[in-house]
Each structure stands twice: as C-alpha cells, then as structure tokens.
Amino acid sequence: MLKAWLDLPTLGIFAALCTLYYGTALALAGVTFRSPLRGRIQSLTGVVAPFFSCLAILFGLLTSFLANDIGDRNRQALRAVQTEAGELRNIYTLSVASVTDMRTIRVALKDYARSAVQEEWPEMVEAGSSAKTRAAYDTLLREVSDPAITKDASGAIHAALLSAAVRVGTARGDRLSLSSDRTNDIKWISVLILGVMTQVGLALVHLERPRAMLAALTVFGTAAIVALGLIALQEHPFQGTFQVSPAPLQRLLALSDVVAPVEPAPAVAPAAK
Description:
By secondary structure, the chain is mainly alpha-helical. It has helices at residues 2-6, 10-33, 38-42, 50-97, 103-124, 131-144, 148-152, 155-179, 185-204, 210-232, 247-250. The longest helix has 48 residues, at 50-97. The radius of gyration is 29 Å and the shape is rod-shaped.
C-alpha cells in the first residue's frame, strides 16, 4: 500500500494525505463531541498542553531524518549519473586523441548510452534494469579490453580506457542500486503514524473546546500534508516531479563516431639568405 501511494502522481499523493489527516481530524472531533463515547472521552479533560509537545517533537525529528535520507539519496543518484556520463566522455576523448582508429569503441559507447536512456531508464521506475543495457556495457568493455590497443597505441592509453570503463560499470551499479532502494518504507510508516498520534495528542488538550480543537487539528494537518507531500515527491530519484534527468547521458548521443583525420601542417620554406 505504501509503494502504491508513493507511485501516485503529485495530486494523488497530496489527495491521500488530505484524506488521512483531514479525515482523522473530523473523526476525532466527531468521536469527541457527537458519538455515544463522548462522555468517557471528555472525562479525560485535564491533559496538559506540554503533552502534545512530546509527540510533535518526535514527529518533527523523524520527519527531518526521513527528509535528510531522501535528499542524500537523490544527491547520490545525481552524482552516479554524472560520473557515468563523465567516464563515458573520458573514453570518447581518449579514443579520439589516440593515433589509432578506435571507431568501434565510440560506436559501442553510444550504443550503451542510447540503451541506458531509452531502455533502462523506464525500467528503473519499477526498480528494474535492462538486459540490453547490460549486454551493451559488456560489448563496450570487450572493445576496450582488446589487447591490440596496447600494441597500436600505448599501455598508458589502454590502462586509462580500462579504468574509465570499469568506473562506468560501477556508476551504473550505483544508479541501479539507488533506483531499487526501499529502505525508507519503515520510516514512512512511522512518520505517518506519528502524525496521526500527534493529532490525537492535540485533541486530548482541547476536549472542552470543539472549535479550538478543529482549528488546531486543521492547522497541524495542513502543515503535515505540505511537508510530507513535498518529501514524498522526492522519494524515487528516477521518477516523479523531481527526478534525476538522463540529460548527461543523452548528450553523449550527439558525439560523432567518425573523427576527421588531422591534416599535416604545410611545410615552411626556409628563409632566403
């Protein structure tokens, strides 16, 4: 149920929170002042206001920890995508700077970037990966691992190509790991329950004043809806309103496979004596 809520569009996420917290406010007011249990409930009159503060502090602390975890995960996701694109561009630059023709490496590089954007990115919405992208990376790694590069270019260039290719795979692994991370589910459940418990605490300190109770529950509910809704929109780093963009990988598709040969500089005639 929690996953279904977090996968909803923006309006759906906020509508679910409104239903929860405004519905809880109406239910508490109805049970306190309109139900057959109102006598027993109002016998609890005398609970002091600082009691509500304890619940509010717990709710605020856990919400802050949750927001920090989600923000840190989004930063890691952005860093993984930028690292992946940066290392691919390093491979491209090395292949162009080499004296030998490395067009096959550039073709494999663009095939991998295209597969990551067009095939694997949609799969990450469901915490999955693409077998075609994995195969494209294997092809790139095979091209970069060709022993002939050391003989035709140099050992230093071959080592740099291999290092960059390995870092591409590491960055891809980080990206996939972050897209499938569901470790915050327990924190979400705790925050949502603590929000309801905080509303119960507010009701207990307003048992004799119906209008004040409704006003307090509505204000707190609105604040909880806004805060939790904005945090929920960032829960999945690769989908939703604030998703990490694949633009760094898309820009690699504009690179050319064929590099024009460098024409030698014209000879300069010796000066006449």
